[in-house]
Input
Amino acid sequence: MRHNNIKSLTWIIIAGTGIVFSILANSCAESQKVAGKTGVQLWAENCQRCHNTPSPNTFSHDQWVTIGMHMQTRAQLTDKERDKIVAFLNQ
Output
């Protein structure tokens, strides 16, 4: 009986490890997709999908940084995505 429990536990560990590696691989692929995108692409995909955005000249650099931090949480953006969008808006 104990041997069967060890076999079952071994398979659970193997399956769990496979799931974790799958999640990590997917996360890395998503990070690479983001890394390859420009601020304007991220802005179009994340900002304009919910609402019309104002002209980049509407706000100062500091205001865009504050807006970027606020919208990061609302749109579930990574720090890198937020930084790229804010950099685009500050050009």
The chain has two domains: 1-36, 38-91. The first helix runs from residue 2 to 35. The two ends are 69 Å apart (CA to CA). The helical segments are 2-35, 39-46, 61-75, 79-89.
